[in-house]
Amino acid sequence: MSASYHYTFNIGFKETSVSIEQDVPSIETVKTAAVLRGTGSSAKPAALVVCDTNTASLAKAVIGKTDTPLCVLETGEKAKTLGSVTTIILAARNAGLGRDGLIVAVGGGVLTDTAGFAASCYMRGCALAFVSTTLLGMADAAIGGKTGVDFDGVKNLAGAFYPAQAVFMPLVALRTVPSREIKSGFAEVLKTAILGGYEHEDLFDGALPGVGDIDGVDGYEAFAPLLARTVEYKGRLVEEDPEERSGKRALLNLGHTFGHALESAAGLGALTHGEAVAWGIARACELGVRLGVTPEPRAQRIAALLERFGYETRNPHPAITDVVRYQEAMQADKKKRSGRLVFVVPTGESAVCVDADEKQAE
Ligand code: GLY
Predict the structure, then answer these.
(1) Domain 254-361 sits in which CATH superfamily?
(2) Tens-digit pLDDT profile for residues 208-233
(3) Interval between CA 10 and ligand 1 midpoint (Å)
(4) Could you report the per-residue pLDDT of 290-299, keeping only the tens digit for each?
(5) Strand (E) or helix (H) holding 132
(6) C-beta of 52 in contact with ligand 1 (< 6 A)
């Protein structure tokens, strides 16, 4: 029998159900799950399915023989705009969605972030469900309610915390994700394991996503327990700090301050998000050891794990052609955090936020 995992998270004022299963859900299954978690909607709300050009066939599989309308956006970060939000809102109105209507986003993180933000605005907030189709989306974006779009060249400048009521993660969708994108998502899986202190467990042995058909077991099915652990850890962390106020949720930024600076210094699009985050985790370990926060043996174990999965950990990264741009990107990150440069560094069993300015002053 195929692996399946189910969780329920209480995120702020909403409940999110998550199902990791082999196949894509039908629209009826999505409606039932979303409406059960909703606030007094009718049993079968009108729905709009939103996808991008890469996920249209999966979205059609969700719709099946029903006449549920489909809104198809362009693929990629360039479509993460207020223009796409407008397109979704118009499609929802044309489809006759009321306040109890349901927007179902079928796609990766860019698509679910965009459609999630549209759902947060439509009639002051309609029901929302995700069918997450990439590893990056499953391991991170689909859980926790961060929605939004880029604006004026700034990533996620406009957005809202708006968790989906129901999230589906069909393993079958991963079969068509390019291996470089799988590796990108896998960095978030590793990051979460480091936060949870379970990166040394044998979950990582032989459970590499995409390694197909060992003794008749689909590589993604073998990988499902590790994905489930990732989803559960992130969901529980977000339950404790849904809007990133107490510092708990900020731990999910492990590797991201260095990683974002690298992404920008390498030229946007040259590296995947996960390649940059993995490199950032190696830098966070170095910083942690220097500050006396990360025990040296753990830093070595994490570096070995990153290398085992083929991530670049050398410093400086060979893709940094412009050191000034790297430093400027760090400063831009500082601006976003009220002038403080905050890093997440591993501890003995998890990680902690450190304020680099305060540490320098000590
Ligand atoms: N991607 C980090 C978070 O969900 O908080």
Answers:
(1) Dehydroquinate synthase-like - alpha domain (1.20.1090.10)
(2) 665 544 455 677 777 889 999 999 99
(3) 16
(4) 999 999 999 9
(5) strand 127-132
(6) no
